[in-house]
Fold this protein.
Amino acid sequence: MSQVLSNFVRALRAQDVRVSISESVDAGRVAELVGFEDRQVLKDALSQVLAKTDDEKFAFNECFDQFFAFDQFKPPKPASNENEAASEQSQEDEGQAGEEGEEQDGEGGESEGSGQPSDSGSAPGSGGSGSDDREGAAEGGEASPDRDLTALLESGDDVELQAQLAAAGREVGADRIRLFTQRGLFTRRIMEAMGLEGLNETISQEQRSGTSAGEARADNLRELREAFRLEVRDYVERQLELYTANAGRQLREEVLSKINISNVDRRDFKLMQALVRKMAKRLLALNSRRKKRSRRGQLDVRRTIRQNIEYDGLMFDIAWKQTKVDRPKVVAICDVSGSVAQYATFLLMFLYSLTEVLPKVRAFAFSNQLGEVTDLFADKKIEEAIAEALSVHGGGSTDYGRAFEDFEAIALDDIDHRTTVLVLGDARSNFGDPRADILDKIHDRARRVLWLNPEGKTLWNTGDSEMKRLSPHCDRAVVCSSLNDLERIVSDILRTAV
Amino acid sequence: MTAPRVEISDIQDGFAKEGYICNAHIATAIFLARNLEKPILVEGPPGVGKTELAKATSEFLNLELIRLQCYEGLDEAKALYEWKYGKQLLYTQVLKEKLGDLMEGAQGLAASMDRLHEFDDTFFSEEFLEPRALLKSLWSEKGSVLLIDEIDKSDDEFEAFLLELLSEYQITVPELGTIKAKSSPIVFLTSNNTREIGDALKRRCIHLYIPFPDADLETRIITARVPEVEEGLRKQLVSFVQNLRELELKKVPAVSETIDWARTLVLLHAKELDSDMVRNTLNVLLKFQDDIDNIDSDINALTTKARAAAE
């Protein structure tokens, strides 16, 4: 597989597209088959073998446009078709046009797809004119490696320039760029690899020659060099964007999923929400299949008879009884008083992002009084619903005893052997009776009771924390302070559901 | 080798002749599938013509279409092959009477067993094999188009079972050994995304996502499918449906429903849309009473908008 393609695959992976080895081999075969001449065909074809979900297709489109943002895919500019006698003005225009075009690539994306097959035909033509120029410049008698860049710039042959730029980029390893601050370094390196030294020398030679023609040429070259430098920097920035754009975000997400939720900054909430959604999606994918569990040893007589009619009634294909694994019913009781509200927000967000596998979630919120908030979530968007739940039920001083009494009155009857009860709270009841006896009643009826405590274990039972009285009535009491903890708990609920 | 673009537009034209209008993206997938010999996994909302694509391909390439509809509980006996048990039993009955003749002259148990062994091989030969969809397509002499419809409805065991077929175009039958395809079929798998398809399967396929068509493409589809509709009405109804898809609906109307609606309107001799007509025929487009009730108040606005857009 060509270097270009493997770089492209690497760029895709940086954008969260999962590409397996076999898929990148496929990409190689596709590229061989359709060639690089036709941008749209190549894009369609590669997207079909590399990106295999909606999100990936979207990322693919962006990445493709950015990665293959070369000028040769654009309609030829009039300037490049003019002969070498073209005035300085037109060449300068061209340089600028190139710059502008480049910038559009970075932002625009799709618009480029329109530049279609016609331009591939024009590429060889302009390439030809470029080689003519080189001969002309050779008469000037410069050393061979330097002559290229000077001639190339003067010829205004953008196709060749881009090609050489890409080659030089590969040579100095521009795809290894990691940090924003490395831009200058890599720009310099690429320019040097393309023969900057020779260009500079030519400029100073012409300047020293004293003739007006020489000075004009030096001025012109200086301008071209400046335009070219911008172009190279653009190229380097694009590489940076391609290979590392997501690295920062990925790092951030990793950190956010580990740190204590109460320490998360308000401004990171958007990211946190996206993260919860992503985690929920992963859990969904894992659990979306309905599991069946066959109960070996119990013959399913009816199915066996039906299944064996075709064998003349001989019972040799035996069917066993199966039970479908039930989706768990979840009841979440959340403390939404000041200290714990954040955690409740994210727990609820998790549970309600999983409606496909957790169709029966009931949520109760309390600080001193308890109320059901399930309907809020049914009618509104998650964020709004959470905000409203917090404003209605949050705020007061926590009273676990009162909250459990309310819960007993509202919902205890609905708890059965399939229900998983989650209690989220720090168990700080302001020295009131936490009514552990009600929790015990809940425990008797429910399949299991999990207590999620955002405080670290060392803080349990200190001050007004009532964990020692409450935790005996739970199947498990766990610390739950970060998104990772939350994900683990929710996935545990899903997995062990029967 | 002709340029890929030419070949792709050939495919597009060929499909158009069969009445299947598609964009270059879809044609590219067919092109790749033929050249790389890989199956295509087609995803997209229901009713955008995923199944039609397979049908059109079979007509375009003049190959037999073999269809396998997936459902929960589909197993290899129904998808791949089955022994003709009835026939086997019948033959055993017949043999029973002839058993004496067969055993004549056999000396001792070992010799009799040897003779019997000759028969059990014949019992498990291709004579007694009932080929189902997958095996049929492997056996097909000049290749075939194999459509595995709604793969997401099958169990994951079946999905795993398909892997061998999809990557090697061969299948292993315990009694017969490995059966290779006589010529590689073109395989389409369709999915409505009711569940996530496994990574292993996705990796082996070309992935094609067909979204709802844009107004232009949809107009062309209607032209091809319901040529009786007059141009004015055609534009109006397409624009109506396109606007409808923007609304919050339980189930947005698909292309197949637009076609049905166009046919309905032709049947009613409609010349152009008016709100009464729309109201009376809306049940062709929308399949939930809730949806119909919800947009009832918008019908006038939508109709005017559609008429304006068509001019």
User: Anything to note?
Assistant: Residues 296-323 of chain A form one domain. DSSP finds 21 helices and eight strands in chain A.
